[in-house]
């Protein structure tokens, strides 16, 4: 869980406005921890509503890539199916173009697979 907790702390450090979402999830699921994929999806829905600078969006994409490449399979899967896919399906217009532009290698690969799946 340390890798997961570290990722969440770094994400909230970069985007402090996610802290309230995190605390809401912790309170809702207490005494258990919230399901990680659900938490990542909720983070994604919050991120879509933010007006992020290009620099912050680039940093976020690097963080997502690092989490996607994590040796912790739970974190990697939650980022792919919770955070990354939520961002992909909820960003629109110019925001979606920027999101796609700043994707890192494995994140881009995951999104390409997702797009191909939905084309068929």
UniProtKB/TrEMBL annotation:
It comes from the Bacteria. Residues 10-112 form the DUF7674 domain. This is DUF7674 domain-containing protein. It comes from Acinetobacter nematophilus.
């Amino acid at each position: 869980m340390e890798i997961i907790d570290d990722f969440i702390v770094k994400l909230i450090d970069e985007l402090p406005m996610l802290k309230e979402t995190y605390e809401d999830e912790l309170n809702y699921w207490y005494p258990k921890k919230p399901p990680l994929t659900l938490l990542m999806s909720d983070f994604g829905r919050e991120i879509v509503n933010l007006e992020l600078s290009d620099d912050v969006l680039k940093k976020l994409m690097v963080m997502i890539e690092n989490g996607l490449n994590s040796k912790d399979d739970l974190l990697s899967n939650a980022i792919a199916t919770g955070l990354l896919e939520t961002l992909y399906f909820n960003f629109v217009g110019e925001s979606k173009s920027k999101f796609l532009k700043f994707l890192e290698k494995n994140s881009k690969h995951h999104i390409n697979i997702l797009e191909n799946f939905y084309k068929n």
